[in-house]
Every structure is written in C-alpha cells, then in structure tokens.
Write a sequence for this structure.
C-alpha cells in the first residue's frame, strides 16, 4: 500500500503543473535570450504569467501540427514567415486583426494580409552573403558583391548554404533566386553554384558560424545573423547581393483554439509594439529591421536603403504546393548533381 | 477474497466515485465538482450527462460480488475476472471512442450522429479505477491458478503488459499508421510504396557514377564500419586491461567511461574545433608542415570518428567481461596439446569470444544507426536515416509519412541485425564460467597480438584524451578556435547565482532546464530500474503465454530511433484518453520505456547467475513472491540495480532526439537547451553546460553506488558494476 | 514439535508442460510420520512430483491433499511444507543464522523470537557456534545441515528433500543419510525424499515409490521392492538384477518350480502359471564354483573379474546369457577366461510378472 501512495503522489507531482488556466503558453522561435527578455518584460507589464518554450521554427511547426487536435500553445512568436503562412493555410492559426497593425511598415501589413490576418510581421531580415575576410585574403580572392560573383571557380568548395529541405533560411534563398531570375534561369544559377558549394548544412544558421570560424569562405544567410558575428569580433563582412535579394518576415501568430485567447491577443499586440521591438531588437544588439515604424533599429543593422529587396511573393512561395514542387525540383536537379 | 483484493476494490471505488475522473484543474473545485468538469466518474455519469461512464460501475459491481456473497475460491475468482475484465474493457473503449470533439471515428459519427458526446483526457480517478480493475482481474486470474496461483506475479505481468502496451505498442502503432497516410490523413498504399522504394533511400548510383547513393546504404555502410571499428578497438582495450601488465589501466578505465556520460554534439563539436579547417590541429599542421587546411572532417570520416569515440567504450565493456570469462583451463588444455600461444589464441580464445564479439558489433551497429547528434553536427553532405527522419518531421518538407517510412527502414535494419546475430551464434553453448573454481592462470597475450593491441589502443586513448582536453578548454576560453582568452563567462551566463533581496536567486540562463532535467532524470531512473528489473524477473523466472511477444515489446522501443519515438509520443498522447503532452510525466515515461531494455538485459544477465532454487527456497519458507523479490532477489541483484539506475539516469541526462519534441515550457531539458546553444553558435556555453552535466553525472553515479551498496556474497567480490552500465545497452 | 505430522495424498495428478507430460495421472498416499522416497532415473518425474507437493509447480489436473486439506490451487507460500534443495539454496547474502531465521522473519515474527527458533534448530543439527559464518565459509556437509535446519525451523507438516546427498562425497553421504533418518524418526516428521540412488532409497525409506516415465512403476517397502519387483524396470532399477528366461514346470501352491537352463529351483509363484517366465536373479544369487557340480549347475566362463576388497565382481558368459555375479567367498580370485560352474541360490531369485513388462 505504501508503494501505491508513493506512486499516487508521484503522479500528482508529474501531471499537475502547467495546467493552470491563467498561464499563457508561448512557443518562441527567436533567440533564447530574446525570448527570455521579452517574456519577462511582458509579464512585468501585464501581470500575465507566461510559460515559454524555445524551439526552432521547424520543430515548433511540427509540434503545432501534432497538437492540432488539442492545442497546447497560445502564441507562436518569431521565426520566418513561410512556416507561419503554411500553418495559416493549414488552419492551425487563429485570425486576429490587431489594432497595432496600423503602426507597422507596409511590408509587415502586407504579410498579414497575405495570411488572411492570421499572422503579422515583427521584423525583416534580408538574405545576404557573408564572407570571412581572413580566408579570402589568404587565398587572394576578391570580396563577392553579387550572386554572380559566387560562380567564380576560385570559390570552388568555398560557399556554404543550408539545405532548403531542412532550413527555412535556405528555402527563402531558393524562392528568392527563382523570383529574381525566373525559374529556369534561377535553377541554372543554382546548378552552377552547386560546384562551389562545399556543404548543404542542416541548419540555416550553420553557414554563419562556419564563416565566422573560417570553415568556409562564404556563407549565405540572413544578414543580421552575420552582423552578430561581426560584433562578436569575427573577421566577417556581410553584403546584400547587387542583383537584389529576398527576405524573411519574422512573424507572430495566435494558435487556433488557444486556451487563453484574451491574453494571447495582448501578447500579440505587445510583440507588435515599438517598445517590445526595441527591447528585443536593438536593445539586445539584434540587427534586424523591426516592423513597427517607431521601434529603434540597431545602428549596426543592414540599412534597408542599401538593399535591393525583391517583391517577395510570400503567398505563392509560402504555399504548401509550390513549396513541395520547388523542393522536389531542387532535390532532383541540383542536389543530386555530381560535384 | 484476499485483503489486497479488497484494498484494490476499495481503491477502484474511490477512483470511480470520489476522485475527479477527467484531467482538470483542481484549483476552483466549487462548481465543477462532483458533476461538472472536475467531477468524479460517478458524479459525471449520474448528474453530468456523461452516461457512457455508467457501465464502468457495473464492472466494479460485479467485482464486489465475492465480497458480499460467500463463494468458494473458484467462483469468487470467476466474478473477479469478469468484473475486472469487463470494467477495464469498457473504460478503454469509451476513452478511445469519445474525444475532445465528439466521436473519434467517422462511422460512429455517421451512426449516432455527429458530433456526439465530448470528453477530455482521463485523470486521476480514471487512472486509479483502471489500475484497480486491472489488479482485480489479475487477482482473479491468480486465484484460478495462473502462474502457480501467485497473485503478485500475475499482477506484475498484468501491470507490465499494460504499461508496455500503452507506452510502446500504442505509439508505435500510431506512427506506423501514419506511414500509410498521406499528409491529409488519407490512407494511400500507392504513396506508401512510392515512398518506400524511393531512389533517395535505395539508390545505388555511387557505384556506377559520381552521384550519391541512397541514404539507407549510407546508414548501413556507416553502421557496419562503426560496428567493426568499435569491436576491434574494444577488443584491443579489453585484452590490454586483462591480459597484459599495462601500467595505466586505471586511466584506461576513466577514458572508457567518459564518452558514455558525455552529452551528444559535444564530441562532434570537439572534432570540429580540432580538425575543422580552422581547427587547432589543422592550424598546427598547416603552420608546421604546410599541410593545406581542408574540410575532410565533414562527412563520413568525421561521423565515423565521432561515433567510434562515442561507442568504443560500450564495446570495451561488453568484451572485458567476455575476455575475463574465458576459463584459463581451456587455454591451458590447448597448450598441453602443444599449441603455441598464438595458435591457442587463434583457435581457442578468439572463438570463445564469439558471443562477445557479436554483441559488441551489434551494439556498435545499432547505436550508430540511432545516433543523431554526431551526423547532425559532422555529417556535411553525408546523410543518414536518423537525421533524415528528423528533418522529414521538422524540416521544410514537413512530411510525417516520409518520416514514418524512413523509420520503418531503420527499424528493419535494426531488427535484421538482431536476427543475424541470433542466427550466427545459433544454439552453441559458450558458457565457460561455472560454479567450480578455476585455478588456471590467465594466459599472457602472444607477442604479436599484444603489440597490435598497443598499437591501436594507445594512440586511440591519446586521441580520446585530446578530444576531452579540447572540451575542457572550450568551456574556459572566450571562443574556441578564434580567441583563447581564459574566461569564466560561459559558466556565469549559464549558472550565475545572484544574491537578491529574497536570498539567492538563480539568474543563469541554464538553471531552469538544468533543474528540470535533474528532476526528470531522478524520477525516471528509479522507475526504469523498478519496471525493468521486474520485467527481467518475470521473463527469467516465470513462464507464461506470450512471453516472446512480451520480450519483443521491451526491445522495440530501444530499436526505434529516438526521433520517431518523440513524434509517436506526441501523436499518441496529445489527445484523450491519455493526454499527457506538456507534462513531466510524458518525459519520464519516454525515458523509462526507452531505457528499460538495458535494465531488463542486465537484470536477466544477473538473474541467470542466481540459482532459481533460492527463490523457491524462499517460497517454501512461506515468503510470498513479493517478499521473496524484496528479501532474496533484490539484494542479489544489486549490480543490476546499479547498472540500470546509472544507465537510465545518464541517458535521461543526455538523450536528445526523443525529447526534442516532448519538452514543454515548464520542462525544458538540458540537451535541448544545449542544442539550441549550438544552433545559435554559442559553442562556449554549450561546452560549459556539458562540463557541468558530466560532473553532475559523475557525482550521481557515485551516489547511486553508495546508496545501493555492494552485493554481499561472502566470497568473491563482484567486479565494479559501473563497468556493466552500457554493456547491455542493446544486447 | 507441537504440530502433528500430516499425510500427503495425490489423486490422479497430472502435470503437463505443453505437449510433454512430466507426471502422468499418479495417485499415492504418504502416511503421517513416514519417510517415503521417490526413486527413479533422471527424467522420470520424481522431482516434478516433489515440486507439486511443495507448490512450486501447479498440477494440470487432479487433486493434491496435505493433511486432508485440498491444496491443489494454493501457492508454495501458502502450504505448510518445507524443502531441502539439491543445491541447498542457501541465501549467499545472509549469514547462517539469518538463513535459518528467514522463515520466521518473513512470517512476521519478532526478531528475537525468530532468532530463538533459528538457534534451537541449529543446535538440533549440531551447528552451534557457526551462526555468524556466511554459508560459503562452511563445508558441504555443514551447508547441508544449515539447509535442513532452515527447512525445519517453521516445523512444517511435511518436509521435502530433493537429492540432498548428491553434492557430498561418498563417506559423508552415509553419515548424513543416517542423520536425516534419525532426525525424521525423532521428530516424527512426514518426509518425501527424492533420489536416483537406489541404495540410498533402500537405506532411509519406510516406503519407496519407484517412478518411470511419469508414472508409478511400483510402490512398497524396500524389502518388497527388492524381493518382489513388480516388473522388469523395478527389478533392474532396484539393486542389480540378471534377467533370465525360465519355464514354470510345476505349481506348488504359493510357490513354483522353475527350470532355467537345466537348473531347477523353487521360488515364490507370484501368480505365474505354467509356461515361460522371466526371472530377476540378483548378483549374489549367482553362485560360482571352480569344480564340478555339487548341485544342479551349468558351465560358463569368466569374462571379466574385478576385486573390490570385501567381495569380487564377475561377468560370466553362460548359456543363460551374460550374468553379473558378486562373490562374497574369500577364496582366491577367479581369473578371466577360467571355466566355472554356475548354480542359483533359492533366495533372491524372483519371477517378474510379465503383464507390465
């Protein structure tokens, strides 16, 4: 009988926490530090208790899908816009037209509109090239400025990109190249680039680290991530390709069937506010471009004025069908190529 | 009816009539009890409109008959079996057919009209009632003479079977079903066939052209290499440790235990920091010998080295027991027949090691197949199934069906390996350890074998040492590979403790996950040991129908890669009746059933050394099975207890692939946190955290040893049990 | 001993393992206070029968009664039966005293009482002063006595021995055997005793149950079994026997005149009619003489000879077949190849009923 009591006590301990109704559950897909600082500030401002878990975008999306019948989360905060749009398309997200939308840049509002008001942009990160100046100098390779520069044979085995099958970042690049050059031209470019690619990494952030460590000469990733490495003292420079480039719209969404809809909306509104975006952006030396017009941008952030942004068609390229088609094509025509 | 039968009946009634039936918040009970959301089964059935809960009462009522009426043993038992079985069946069925959104199957909705009644996940009341009904059923079966009329044994079998069914077979079934579904949830066999036969899995292009081969072949190739490599290295270490006068055996021992308690990613990370293009060693080679820096570490070589580093200790631990176990008199017999030392080694010793070699190979093979961290970090363009599965789920493609199909392939390989090993070893007897004292002396190694062992093992040991030096240094410098300024910054970021107004405040960013991990590991370890050893006891000491299936079930969760387990747990346990995602419970259960096979194996191994007549002597002296287990078996099982506690604790601290899907806001795990740090490029913090984990695990292992204590046999002292920890890892 | 000994009764008990029948529909009764041996070659079902009494195996069908109470469905722990195991099964992690006190301890008796009971039984088997030793520090004979003390401590209704002497050397075996018999008589215990050694069985038993292939071949007192084997199996198994063919030539009431190859002797008839019969001839009944026949005899030749101190053993080739003979005569040893005259004693020759063959 004693065993039973112990077991019962254990069961109570195990199952009871995390079920109180007042707690808002946030799945956070930006940097751990941003998540923590942001949540703490929100708790302080509203008195609503937040329970936050940080996971990568892909993991969060997989989890939302698995939990579709019985959502656990209330808000999904951060991560590239594509998976948010896909989740919206699959009916995993709730529709909400925040009053804060008025304060946002046009690109963020457009993003929200494309999703049927199921998600909203909180920041913009442009895709760019990062290169290790030390490695380039030692090999006597000129610094790349454009997509086309990367096809130079001297870059053989010196370019690193993530695999679009596993990385949202790399998918943004794939979609951007296709939109920038047209599908046939784009794939021709990717095939040519394939010869210079040393590795398709799993994670989108990996090329950034590899570039900083000198494991690769050039990495293709979001520019603000490269800037972080520069501020950390790595011999890295980042540049927006001269032909133009794509971008991610970091997003926030409310999960459909959220148990705490009221609190979720307050959190959603808060993440769109200038105060919040300043806090977790420039406040933490994060160098993306916030979506709230009034939010402060980090002085180190890549200037949007210097970047030729393409008109990224998130609605089309974020859809499941197009995504699957492009990935299949990339697998068959690019990745399978001999080196 | 026995007193324990009455107690279970009472508990069943409490569970049904008093405790809240469904999972609900207990805080504001006032208006939701007894008929509302937080109501008891009885309350909800009578006043809350949950009519489907009422028939369960009938099961309890039937089981009550033997208490009220005076019946002979057989009749009373029949009532118990009927009541327990009926009640349990009803409880399970209602749980599965009525979900959050009404009927869970289309035909029920079509028949009775959608949406139908709704209910949430089962709660404490339902759990207790189910347990009580199960126990009553088992009690009845025991009274009818099952398992020599031993109620403890029947109950234990019932309980373990129920648990394995719920936490192993049910999730696996869910993922298998999804292998046959397309993304929209429709069954599609053509799509299944297309996925299984996909060129990216089975392609053989690398043989004929410069194209890449299928991921299945990659995985198989790597696993075979790792199996062979770890077995060879492990054998070299084992021979040095037992058959030579090598002076630094203690150091060897440490080097072989370290990799087991090292969190994943860390070895891979260290290899990059050493051999990457800007790695420390590459830099030296470049500066001193002008060897160009290259990226050779990314791909098969890197993964292979990392896995060899990680899994050689396991092979060593398997083989050292085998090498020690070879009876010296057999070798002496060979020598008296005028065989030279070399011939003796080749014709007697080596063949006798066959089971050990096979086991070591199998372990290396399976571990390599399931490994996820090292290919993720070092794989480069070399893809293996485990990472493919992970990215099929979380990657941009989000194709669960594909993940399930890949899991099937992986599972097929693993099971085939088990089968081949079984077939190869056959039914030959390799027992060389008997109760009789063996006064022979261990034969020293033939010289050429000894040199070969030294030549392989010592460089490898040095290499392992260097890797760990890098790990240690990495935690204490600003940025490994770029900036070697010594600093404590990483430890402070993770584990800062500040003195606040209300005493000490844990402000480091790692504390939450660290404490949660400790909590979960501390709960999972004893549960694993209890359930695993109980299962071992049942399997080696009791015979009952379906034992093979039972055994298979316990091995299954081990053979399935963690990623698949994680996804299957979410699929299975996010909806009623068992709705436990987001709790610590699901993490604990996941660990318990993933690590249980080790406890089972080490339990069986130890039990097979314990004469069965000891239990029987205890039984005939009037001790019931439970008392026998407690007083006779458990004290003699101490080495197995230590092994399973240590193993499950360590695995709970270091596992990553399964839990990455299961962690929640409250229960984030150390490893997922470390993965996050690696992702964000904060190698320093990741390494610092890993160092802390290694130290914690060492302390925990020592404490477990201390708490459980040594087995007292009066004669020989048992060899250090930690040695056996990973031995049975998959064996 | 406060408890009176109980009887053990088997009623048509069968034990099957899958398709194998280990014990096949056997019935017997062990009288209270008697020592009954289950004897038979390995695999005959004797140990299974013992384990059925103990409750370590459950009968597939039939009923088992101990002291008149039906225990068929009771588990081992619920039966008032103790067992001494072949391997002794002493708990290696407990001291001698703790081993013996184990029974009362798990029964929930207070510690000092359990200790008292254990010390009493240890004294009974003559092991005072060794309480604190661990079992592995004792000699084989001492371990055996610890096992007996442990089995006795709860004063069971029935005590079971499973080949208790098999791990002892030949000299010790005789002494321990006598000790067990002495103890059984002194404490008036009901004992079931399993062995495959017929000499051991003959020495200790009140009754012997000979088993073969899961059935009872014969049961009776040692003397009955030796002198009146019920069938060839028993005749062969209990003491060595030469099986020879003979012919009943005349019935003389309870006795019969049998001719075996020119030798005619009178033996108990045991229901045999006129005509051919088989006879079991004990080795000691084969009389060998160097010189011509003083009585009815046939000629044979020594095939093998062995001198064993107290007696000599011979293998003799004869018209009756090869005979095994034991000669207690203290004359000179017969050499191999020497011709001998063979005659038969009147005693120790028995007609074997043929029906059971």
């Amino acid at each position: 009988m004693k065993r039973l009591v112990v077991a019962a006590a254990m069961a109570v301990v195990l199952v009871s926490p995390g079920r109180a109704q007042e707690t808002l559950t946030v799945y956070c897909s930006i940097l751990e530090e941003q998540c923590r600082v942001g949540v703490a500030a929100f708790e302080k401002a509203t008195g609503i208790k937040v329970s936050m878990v940080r996971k990568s975008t892909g993991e969060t999306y997989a989890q939302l899908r698995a939990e579709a019948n019985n959502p656990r989360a209330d808000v999904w905060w951060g991560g590239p816009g594509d998976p948010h749009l896909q989740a919206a398309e699959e009916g995993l997200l709730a529709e909400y037209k925040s009053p804060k939308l008025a304060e946002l840049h046009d690109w963020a509002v457009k993003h929200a509109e494309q999703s049927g008001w199921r998600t909203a942009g909180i920041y913009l990160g442009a895709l760019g090239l990062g290169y290790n100046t030390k490695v380039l100098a030692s090999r006597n390779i000129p610094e790349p400025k454009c997509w086309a520069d990367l096809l130079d044979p001297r870059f053989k085995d010196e370019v690193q990109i993530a695999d679009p099958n596993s990385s949202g970042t790399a998918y943004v690049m794939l979609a951007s190249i296709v939109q920038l050059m047209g599908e046939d031209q784009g794939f021709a470019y990717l095939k040519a680039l394939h010869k210079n690619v040393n590795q398709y990494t799993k994670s989108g952030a990996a090329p950034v680290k590899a570039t900083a460590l000198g494991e690769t000469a050039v990495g293709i990733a979001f520019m603000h991530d490269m800037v972080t490495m520069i501020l950390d003292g790595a011999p890295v420079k980042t540049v927006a390709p001269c032909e133009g480039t794509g971008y991610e719209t970091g997003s926030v969404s409310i999960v459909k069937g959220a148990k705490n809809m009221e609190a979720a909306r307050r959190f959603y509104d808060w993440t769109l506010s200038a105060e919040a975006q300043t806090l977790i952006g420039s406040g933490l030396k994060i160098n993306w471009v916030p979506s709230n017009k009034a939010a402060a941008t980090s002085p180190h952030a890549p200037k949007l004025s210097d970047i030729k942004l393409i008109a990224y068609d998130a609605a089309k390229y974020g859809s499941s069908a197009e995504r699957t088609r492009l990935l299949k094509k990339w697998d068959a025509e690019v990745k399978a190529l001999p080196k | 009816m026995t007193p324990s039968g009455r107690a279970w009946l009472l508990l069943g009634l409490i569970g049904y009539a008093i405790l809240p039936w469904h999972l609900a918040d207990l805080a504001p009970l006032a208006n939701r009890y007894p008929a509302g959301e937080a109501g008891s089964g009885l309350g909800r059935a009578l006043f809350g409109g949950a009519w489907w809960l009422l028939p369960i009462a009938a099961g309890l009522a039937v089981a009550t008959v033997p208490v009220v009426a005076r019946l002979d043993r057989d009749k009373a038992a029949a009532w118990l079996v009927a009541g327990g079985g009926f009640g349990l069946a009803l409880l399970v069925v209602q749980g599965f057919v009525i979900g959050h959104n009404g009927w869970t199957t289309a035909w029920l909705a079509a028949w009775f009209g959608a949406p139908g009644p709704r209910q949430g996940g089962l709660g404490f009341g339902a759990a207790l009632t189910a347990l009580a009904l199960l126990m009553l059923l088992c009690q009845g079966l025991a009274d009818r003479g099952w398992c020599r009329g031993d109620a403890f044994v029947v109950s234990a079998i019932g309980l373990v079977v129920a648990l394995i069914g719920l936490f192993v077979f049910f999730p696996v079934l869910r993922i298998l079903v999804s292998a046959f579904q397309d993304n929209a949830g429709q069954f599609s066999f053509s799509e299944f066939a297309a996925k299984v036969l996909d060129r990216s899995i089975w392609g053989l292009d690398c043989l004929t052209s410069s194209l890449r081969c299928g991921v299945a072949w990659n995985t198989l190739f790597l696993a075979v290499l790792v199996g062979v490599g770890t077995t060879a290295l492990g054998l070299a270490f084992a021979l040095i440790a037992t058959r030579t006068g090598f002076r630094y055996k203690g150091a060897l021992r440490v080097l072989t235990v370290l990799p087991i308690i090292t969190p994943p990613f860390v070895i891979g990370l260290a290899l990059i920091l050493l051999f990457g293009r800007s790695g420390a060693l590459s830099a030296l080679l470049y500066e001193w010998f002008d060897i160009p820096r290259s990226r050779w570490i990314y791909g098969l070589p890197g993964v292979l080295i990392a896995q060899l580093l990680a899994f050689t200790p396991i092979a060593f631990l398997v083989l050292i027991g085998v090498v020690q176990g070879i009876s010296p008199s057999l070798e002496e017999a060979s020598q008296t027949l005028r065989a030279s030392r070399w011939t003796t080694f080749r014709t007697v010793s080596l063949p006798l090691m066959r089971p050990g070699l096979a086991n070591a190979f199998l372990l290396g093979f399976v571990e390599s197949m399931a490994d996820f961290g090292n290919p993720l970090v070092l794989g480069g363009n070399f893809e293996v199934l485990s990472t493919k599965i992970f990215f099929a789920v979380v990657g941009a493609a989000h194709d669960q069906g594909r993940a399930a199909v890949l899991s099937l392939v992986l599972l097929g390989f693993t099971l085939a390996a088990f089968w081949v090993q079984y077939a190869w070893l056959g039914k030959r007897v390799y027992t060389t350890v008997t109760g009789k004292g063996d006064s022979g002396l261990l034969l020293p190694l033939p010289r050429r074998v000894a040199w070969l062992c030294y030549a392989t093992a010592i460089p490898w040991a040095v290499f392992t040492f260097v890797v760990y030096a890098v790990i240690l240094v990495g935690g204490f410098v600003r940025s490994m590979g770029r900036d070697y300024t010594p600093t404590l910054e990483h430890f402070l970021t993770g584990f800062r403790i500040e003195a606040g107004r209300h005493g000490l405040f844990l402000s480091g960013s790692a504390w939450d996950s660290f404490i949660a991990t400790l909590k979960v590991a501390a709960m999972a370890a004893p549960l694993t040991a209890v359930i695993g050893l109980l299962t071992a006891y049942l399997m080696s000491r009791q015979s009952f129908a379906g034992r093979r299936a039972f055994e298979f079930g316990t091995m299954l969760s081990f053979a399935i890669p963690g990623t698949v387990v994680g996804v299957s747990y979410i699929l299975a346990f996010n909806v009623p009746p068992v709705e436990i995602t987001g709790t610590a419970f699901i993490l604990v259960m996941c660990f318990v059933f993933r690590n249980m096979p080790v406890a089972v194996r080490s339990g069986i191994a130890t039990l097979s050394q314990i004469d069965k007549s000891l239990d029987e002597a205890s039984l005939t002296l009037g001790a019931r099975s439970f008392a026998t287990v407690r007083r006779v078996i458990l004290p003699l099982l101490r080495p197995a207890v230590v092994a399973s506690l240590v193993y499950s604790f360590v695995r709970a601290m270091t596992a990553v692939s399964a839990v990455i899907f299961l962690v929640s806001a409250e229960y984030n795990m150390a490893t997922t946190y470390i993965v996050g740090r690696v992702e964000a490029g904060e190698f320093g913090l990741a390494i610092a955290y890993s160092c802390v984990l290694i130290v914690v695990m060492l302390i925990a292992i020592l404490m477990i040893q201390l708490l459980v204590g040594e087995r007292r046999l009066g004669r020989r002292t048992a060899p250090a049990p930690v040695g056996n920890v990973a031995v049975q890892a998959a064996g | 001993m406060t408890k009176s000994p109980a009887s053990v009764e088997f009623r048509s008990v069968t034990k099957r393992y899958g398709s194998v029948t280990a014990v096949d529909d056997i019935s017997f009764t062990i009288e209270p206070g008697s020592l009954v041996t289950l004897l038979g070659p390995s695999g005959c079902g004797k140990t299974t029968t013992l384990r059925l009494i103990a409750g370590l195996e459950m009968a597939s069908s039939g009923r088992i009664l101990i002291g008149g109470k039906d225990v068929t469905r009771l588990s081992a722990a619920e039966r008032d039966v103790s067992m001494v195991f072949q391997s002794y099964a002493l708990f290696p992690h407990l001291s001698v005293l703790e081993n013996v006190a184990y029974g009362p301890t798990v029964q929930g008796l207070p510690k000092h009482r359990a200790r008292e009971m254990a010390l009493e039984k240890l004294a009974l088997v003559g092991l005072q002063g060794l309480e604190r030793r661990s079992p592995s520090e004792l000699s084989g004979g001492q371990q055996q006595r610890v096992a007996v003390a442990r089995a006795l401590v709860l004063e069971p209704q029935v005590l079971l021995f499973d080949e208790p002497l098999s791990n002892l050397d030949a000299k010790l075996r005789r002494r321990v055997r006598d000790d067990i018999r002495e103890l059984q008589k002194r404490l008036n215990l009901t004992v079931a005793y399993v062995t495959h050694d017929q000499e051991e069985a003959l020495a200790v038993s009140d009754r012997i149950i000979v088993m073969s292939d899961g059935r009872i071949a014969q049961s009776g007192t040692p003397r009955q079994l030796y002198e009146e084997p019920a069938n060839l199996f028993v005749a062969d198994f209990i003491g060595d026997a030469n099986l020879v063919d003979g012919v009943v030539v005349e019935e003389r009431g309870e006795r019969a005149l049998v001719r075996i190859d020119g030798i005619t002797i009178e033996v108990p008839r045991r229901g045999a009619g006129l005509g051919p019969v088989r006879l079991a001839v004990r080795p000691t009944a084969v009389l060998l003489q160097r010189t011509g026949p003083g009585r009815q005899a046939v000629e044979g030749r020594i095939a093998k000879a062995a001198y064993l101190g107290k007696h000599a053993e011979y293998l003799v080739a004869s018209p009756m077949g090869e005979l095994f003979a034991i000669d207690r005569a203290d004359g000179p040893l017969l050499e191999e190849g020497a011709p001998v005259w063979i005659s038969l004693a009147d005693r120790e020759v028995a007609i074997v009923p043929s029906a059971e063959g």
User: Anything to note?
Assistant: The radius of gyration of chain C is 24 Å. The CA atoms of residues 255 and 268 of chain C lie 4 Å apart.
